[in-house]
Design goal:
The structure holds two protein chains of two kinds.
Chain A lengths: L2 E4 L3 E3 L5 E8 L8 E6 L5 E8 L4 E4 L8 E5 L4 E6 L8 E8 L6 E4 L3 E5 L2
Parallel strand pairs in A: 2-11
Antiparallel strand pairs in A: 1-3, 3-8, 4-5, 4-9, 5-6, 7-8, 9-10, 9-11
Chain B lengths: L3 E4 L2 E4 L5 E7 L7 E6 L6 E5 L3 E2 L7 E6 L2 E6 L9 E6 L7 E2 L3 E5 L1
The chains are: A mainly beta, B mainly beta.
Chain lengths: ~120, ~110
Amino acid sequence: EVQLVQSGAEVKKPGESLKISCKGSGYIFTIYWIGWVRQMPGKGLEWMGILYPGDSDTRYSPSFQGQVTISADKSISTAFLQWSSLKASDTAMYYCARRSATTGFVDYWGQGTLVTVSS
Amino acid sequence: EIVMTQSPATLSVSPGERATLSCRASQSVSSNLAWYQQKPGQAPRLLMYGASTRATGIPARFSGSGSGTEFTLTISSLQSEDFAVYYCQQYNNWPQWTFGQGTKVEIK
């Protein structure tokens, strides 16, 4: 069974750094693109970027380029999303999402990680 | 960037009735269009891809149609578990995917 299991909720202060994770299981982690989606409170879904764990090829949405870093450690089948300096506006739910093998839709989603940034 | 526009923002429907949701792309996305369902407190779930192919386990009361810039998701007879927010997503413009803003289907 394919599963994407994300790390737990985080509460941080503005200016702090953060790295959240998404562990894939039940499939070959290195051959599926895995991406991140932001959902701000009460709002819709926003595509942030995506990474191919096999060679770490990473693509970012222009809206998120330079704001976050997407990475992966294929030895532990885990993808990461990190911030070097959080802002209050980063408060949101973050989902990891696996791109289907054949085309570009998302076939599996993580359960989400809630990030709260508040002073 | 391809902009996806969904309408209406909210759809009030009685159980057992038909619901029709629309999604329009600012330029052609061919049939590279997916629909997702999201219930409160849950992650989105894939409903439809290729504009009209149901994902595994999705009931036949869900159907999708369209190509190019105009797409429709139809729920033929709404069940209680179908009240949720529905998002369309284009994946034609790899890797710059975009979602619509969502349509909330609520109980009338």
